[in-house]
Amino acid sequence: MSRLEVRYAQCWEDPRLSREALAVGPDDDVLSIASGGENGLAFLLDRPRSVTLIDRNPAQMHLVELKVLAARRLDREELLGFLGARPGPDKDRLYDVLRPGLSGPARAFWDRRRDLIRDGLFHCGRYERFFRAAIRYVVPLIHSRKTLRALLDCPTVGEQAAFYRDVWTNRRWRTLFRLVFGKRVFGRWGRQRSHYRYVTAADTWRLFYDRAERELSQRLVRDHPGLAYFFKESAYPRPENLPLWLQAAHFPAIREGLDRLKLRTAGLDEILAATHPGDFSKFNLSNIFEYMAAGEYARALGGILRVSRSGGRLAFWTMFVPRPVPSSLSARFAPVFPDGSPDPAYRTWTLFEDFHAWRLL
């Protein structure tokens, strides 16, 4: 990796759906993509035997290592301030308290990035910085603060949908949305250009546009964890918007389960090659299959079948690239949701297009 950088400061999939689909229990060993760590930490609520978090990007693992250490050492209010979920002016002091507990590579990484720590770990990713800049600098070119406030203050979903349709969605909004969320700009500054390698849709901005409209017609912004974070300029306005692992009702159980976490800096292919049959029973793999060619995706599924226990489960998301079960493996996978589609209410946390959950036969 030419430039060590945190791509995602947080996980933006809906962990409720992953937890329901995987049905994690005390005899399970979970393999999960790390990303920002939120989903892996949420699985600790189900008290599995172990949760192994993996990521090919060392920066993501340094981020998760610091979050886990902070969860061990800080009280919850200090932790919320340190992460940037609440105002917290003493992040430098708290980092100095935590610093001796980090591994050498993680300590060196964060020592060179104290500015990101001062801003809050929740905001340090390329993805989050992109959206933060869009809200601060692009949205004011389209709408006034008063109009933004009116959108956020809509009392019902129906009124919000009507306001979005009749007031918010003007020509400037559509034009700037097209520029900001097209492959060229979003792929360069928000995601990675390599993430579009297997995308065949010409207008990915349009897919985002339609999904944003869908979200705003189904759930109030203030009740929507992702939109609440971004429209509020990187703040969580309500306690229930916080990631599951940080919510007051869940944090004690999360803290008690931190010893079940295992952190590995490696890609899925490396992990599967080094894993014995039966080492894992549940797999939570974000949307990594979108970044693979079809043949590589089929080989990864074969590797998962090889290392999984009987009756294991796999869950993952897709944003732009459909990933059905290859016909050569169709007899080995059965959908967790028999009708092929989970409750639409679960989709209102995310701008991903599809969620896949399969039992391994």
Explain what you see.
The chain is an alpha/beta fold and 361 residues long. It is 43% helix and 12% strand. The protein has helices spanning 15-22, 38-43, 58-73, 76-83, 91-98, 104-111, 114-119, 126-138, 145-152, 157-168, 171-180, 183-190, 204-216, 225-231, 251-256, 268-273, 294-307; strands spanning 29-33, 50-55, 261-265, 280-284, 308-318, 333-335, 354-360. Strand 4 (280-284), helix 17 and strand 5 (308-318) form a beta-alpha-beta unit.
Helix content: 40-55%
Give the CA-CA distance, first to last residue: 36 Å
Alpha-beta content class: alpha/beta
SS element count, helices:
17
SSE map:
Elements: H1 15-22, E1 29-33, H2 38-43, E2 50-55, H3 58-73, H4 76-83, H5 91-98, H6 104-111, H7 114-119, H8 126-138, H9 145-152, H10 157-168, H11 171-180, H12 183-190, H13 204-216, H14 225-231, H15 251-256, E3 261-265, H16 268-273, E4 280-284, H17 294-307, E5 308-318, E6 333-335, E7 354-360
Parallel strand pairs: 1-2, 1-4, 2-3, 4-5
Antiparallel strand pairs: 5-7, 6-7
